[in-house]
């Protein structure tokens, strides 16, 4: 054991890594700053000879000086602000009314300086209530595809105007071969538009609407780093999330549409698992309310949320933000990208780093990567 002549010399030796003190070293690594030695701090502590160390920790979330005039939307560098819209399904009379509703939500999230806002899966089915008549499900979904260009153009315009990247839920889209796919339009604030098709349509989507699954799954490059989109049921397939996070996605957006609580919990529990096993953030946005004359949209259940990994760097319950079930609302959270790096490199567990690639791997056999 190395000997020193004073407490001050001991602290200096620990700081220079000549002596290892498990408590002092841990505190220094966590950002504590040593101020001075306190004599006779605890005379009963014979191992420390009664000495104590006065240390200070500077909270990075709080600036040195604040005033009432400070921007309430100010946030720490390295954070990404995300918003999720829990959208109320109700009858409307025109596309202009639909535009007014979604513009309100984008405007609100723009006021809060959100980097991303996510709408629910198939929330555009609300447009089928305009005619206020009941038509067969397959005809209804075919009619809805006529709105595709207007939907894409609307959200592209809103993303630019309100300076927020929009994950525009999903919308039934007719492909060149005539098949209908469930497609998410990602409209970025620089004016660019990307698409992500749902890979796994549910049995109901196939039966009622003849929706086919897509073949491509790629990250979307944004000004906040690459992101991924998994539409509802796709979140229940671990391989898809791993494929996206292996491409660099730190945030996964999950627009969903579920009729009752059991279906919702399948999506939520799966999304939480994806956040843990990939050490990433997952944002869920769902529909509430009902559309009585629209087949397969009679009732809706949602509790939209923003999920994190479960470790010391995040909220203790792995939930950055939550909502009340079945209430139309917006929820926001600031997500720290450096917390993901800390968890991946020095967390309690390191799911990404500890994978045994010599035993197993996720191999994508689908389409070509997005250019």
Describe this entry's structure for a reader.
- The mean pLDDT is 91.
- This protein has helices at 7-15, 22-29, 95-111, 137-144, 148-162, 203-209, 238-246, 261-278, 337-346, and strands at residues 32-38, 52-57, 79-89, 116-118, 165-167, 171-174, 180-187, 193-197, 211-212, 227-229, 251-255, 281-285, 287-289, 305-307, 319-322, 329-336.
- Strand 7 (180-187) and strand 8 (193-197) form a beta hairpin.
- Helix 3 runs parallel beside helix 5.
- The protein contains 9 helices and 16 strands.
- It is an alpha/beta fold and 371 residues long.
- The chain folds into 2 domains: 7-57, no CATH class; 79-346, Carbon-nitrogen hydrolase (Nitrilase/N-carbamoyl-D-aminoacid amidohydrolase), CATH 3.60.110.
- Strands 3, 4, 5, 6, 7, 8, 9, 13 and 16 form a 9-stranded mixed beta sheet that branches. A 5-stranded mixed beta sheet has the order 10-11-12-14-15, covered by helices on one side. Strands 1-2 form a two-stranded antiparallel sheet.
- 27% of the residues lie in helices and 22% in strands.
- The protein is elongated, with a radius of gyration of 25 Å.
């Amino acid at each position: 054991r190395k000997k020193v002549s004073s407490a001050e010399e001991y602290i200096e030796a620990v700081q220079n890594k000549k002596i290892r003190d498990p408590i002092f070293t841990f505190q220094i690594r966590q950002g504590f700053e040593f101020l001075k030695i306190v004599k006779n701090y605890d005379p009963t502590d014979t191992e420390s000879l009664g000495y104590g160390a006065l240390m200070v920790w500077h909270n990075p979330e709080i600036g040195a000086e604040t005033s009432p005039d400070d921007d309430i939307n100010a946030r720490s560098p390295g954070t990404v602000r995300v918003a999720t819209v829990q959208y109320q399904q109700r009858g409307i009379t025109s596309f202009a009314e639909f535009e007014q509703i979604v513009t309100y939500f984008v405007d609100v999230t723009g006021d809060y300086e959100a980097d991303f806002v996510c709408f629910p899966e198939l929330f555009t089915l609300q447009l089928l209530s305009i005619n206020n008549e009941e038509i067969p499900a397959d005809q209804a979904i075919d009619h809805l595809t006529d709105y595709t260009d207007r939907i894409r153009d609307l959200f592209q315009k809103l993303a630019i105007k309100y300076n927020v990247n929009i994950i525009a839920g999903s919308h039934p889209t007719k492909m060149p071969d005539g098949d209908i796919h469930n497609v998410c339009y990602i409209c970025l604030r620089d004016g660019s538009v990307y698409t992500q098709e749902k890979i796994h349509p549910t049995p109901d989507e196939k039966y009622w609407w003849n929706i086919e699954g897509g073949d491509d799954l790629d990250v979307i490059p944004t000004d906040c780093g690459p992101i991924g989109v998994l539409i509802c049921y796709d979140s229940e397939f671990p391989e898809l999330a791993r494929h996206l996070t292996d491409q660099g996605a730190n945030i996964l957006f999950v627009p969903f549409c579920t009729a009752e609580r059991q279906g919702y919990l399948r999506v939520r529990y799966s999304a939480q698992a994806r956040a843990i096993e990939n050490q990433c953030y997952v944002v869920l946005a769902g529909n509430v309310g009902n559309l009585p004359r629209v087949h397969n949209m009679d009732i809706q259940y949602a509790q939209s949320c923003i999920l994190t990994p479960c470790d010391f760097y995040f909220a203790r319950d792995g939930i950055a933000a939550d909502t009340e079930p079945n209430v139309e609302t917006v929820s926001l959270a600031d997500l720290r990208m450096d917390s993901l790096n800390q968890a991946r490199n020095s967390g309690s567990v390191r799911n990404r780093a500890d994978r045994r690639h010599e035993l197993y791997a996720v191999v994508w056999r689908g389409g070509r990567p997005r250019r």
